[in-house]
Write a structure and sequence with these properties.
Shape: globular
Number of domains: 3
CATH architecture of the largest domain: 3-Layer(bba) Sandwich
Number of helices: 14
CATH class of the largest domain: Alpha Beta
Strand order of the largest sheet: 4-3-2-8-18
Structural class: alpha/beta
Length: 461
């Protein structure tokens, strides 16, 4: 066994996803000696398997559906979907899952990069094992800051038989050169529905199984009802309130047996039942954090509680597994590490978008969450079709605006529709800045835009 190399840089950043790369790069820009560590690709989930490639797939599926909408509305069209251009675009956007550009981007700023598995061996000590089998190890003892940005991994449910099968996660589907003829999807959240709808539009027969009573269980029930209607109309088979009790694979097909006796079969099985942070693998017990904790406890400056000199950003904090959240927290942490001050982190107006068609954009509290907090809640829902925009047969204008108000301000909102994520911008600002409802009602909303429906909902409050 080779004795480990010992190094004492100014800062160590474990995990070089969007948040980690941002923190490490900005500390390097400030003249610090920074070591960034990742066992996978620099840039993390978002550019290689998440946000970017999945939206290429979603946009391609939307184009196919838009072309089908031409007859009866704008003329004649003939549509023959082809997955091969999508594969080419995904591979181009991900550099064929090569992170050389990202690594160079960091090192040219003065940082040092180590490829390997990092584990905490003390409150301010990190052991990095190399990616090969040579037994090489590096001990890092940062002098000024340790930043934990390890992200999350797909959470696989303990269904008997599942672990022994070649099931897919979103990584496998995004990297697929060809689509299967049929796909079972475990999970009814954002990843499941985005990818499921996209591949259904390219001829793959999709069946969704969600254990809870509705799709998108963390969002408003109106959003679940809308997607249930749209997705089933498109041919996706959806089962909610269904529990898988066994998984098997035989003859090139997966079979899922459910508690009520249903037997569902398909060529491939996609597991999209959420993500989890593996604190045990990180060695978080060195910080006094239980291995089974949902995330690292942090204060408003992203400092890990009870661990001086240690910060955490991104998924590992348990504040929301979103790239924009990771980048937001990275900025707060960098300012804190460099002693620059500024506003601490706030979480009352966290935006989130499910990029289905229609999109489901939401910010802040749902009605149920607001009532659980004991707020004096008022709500209103307005139909998007009332905007008058593009009202032609089959134009895909399904959607609504739902507002959740308390104490004369918005505490939450949902914008569901063709541009739900874009409408969400103004609603996020309203929730973040706690703009009085009277001011929002006095706003002159342009007609005919979908934004005008926000005014209709405000008037209905």
């Amino acid at each position: 066994m080779v004795a480990p190399t010992v190094s004492t840089p100014d800062a160590v950043v474990i995990g070089m996803g969007p948040a980690g790369e941002e923190v490490a790069g900005r500390l390097a820009d400030a003249g610090w000696d920074v070591v960034g560590i990742d066992e996978r690709l620099v840039g993390g989930e978002c550019p290689y398997w998440g946000c970017i490639p999945s939206k290429i797939m979603v946009r391609a599926g939307n184009l196919v559906t838009d072309a089908h909408r031409v007859p009866g509305s704008a003329g004649i069209s003939r549509v023959q979907s082809d997955w091969r251009p999508v594969v080419r675009h995904v591979r181009a956007a991900t550099d064929d899952w090569d992170d050389k550009v990202a690594v160079d981007r960091f090192t040219t700023r003065g940082g040092r990069f180590l490829r390997g598995t990092a584990r905490l061996t003390g409150p301010n000590e990190v052991c990095v094992s190399g990616p090969d089998d040579g037994g090489t190890e590096t001990l890092l003892r940062p002098r000024r800051a340790l930043v934990l940005a390890v992200g999350a991994r797909p959470s696989v449910p303990p269904v008997p038989g599942l672990a022994g099968t070649p099931y897919w996660t979103n990584h496998d589907l995004v990297e697929a050169a060809e689509l299967p003829e049929s796909l079972l999807v475990l999970g009814g959240g954002a990843i499941a529905l985005e990818l499921g709808q996209a591949v259904q539009r390219f001829g793959c027969q999709v069946t969704v199984l969600e254990a809870q009573s509705r799709l998108l269980p963390q969002e408003e029930p109106e959003a679940a009802d809308l997607l249930m209607r749209v997705l089933t109309t498109e041919g996706i088979e959806i089962h909610t309130g269904i529990e898988a009790v066994s998984v098997s694979r035989q003859g090139g097909r997966f079979t899922v047996v459910c508690r009520r006796g249903e037997r569902l079969s398909a060529e491939r099985l996609l597991v999209a039942t959420g993500r989890r942070v593996d604190l045990e693998r990180l060695g978080a017990s060195a910080l006094g954090v239980p291995a089974d904790a949902r995330g690292l406890p942090v204060d408003e400056r992203l400092r890990v509680l009870g661990a001086p000199g240690v910060w955490a950003v991104g998924d590992v904090t348990g504040k929301g597994a979103f790239t924009h959240m990771a980048m937001y927290q990275a900025d707060v942490a960098v300012r804190g590490i460099l002693g620059q001050g500024g506003r601490p982190a706030e979480y009352h107006a966290v935006p989130r978008v499910t990029f289905t068609d229609p999109e489901i954009g939401a910010v802040g509290l749902t009605e149920a969450q607001a009532r659980t907090r004991g707020l004096a809640v008022r709500t209103a829902v307005a139909d998007l079709a009332a905007s008058g925009r593009g009202l032609v047969h089959g134009a895909g204008n399904d959607g609504f605006i739902k507002l959740v108000a308390a104490d004369r301000v918005l505490v939450g909102a949902t914008a569901a529709g063709p541009t739900g994520g874009e409408i969400l911008g103004l609603l996020t600002l309203a929730v973040q800045a706690k703009v009085p409802l009277a001011e929002l009602r006095a706003t002159n909303w342009a007609y005919p835009t979908f934004h005008r429906v926000v005014g209709d909902a405000l008037n209905a409050l």
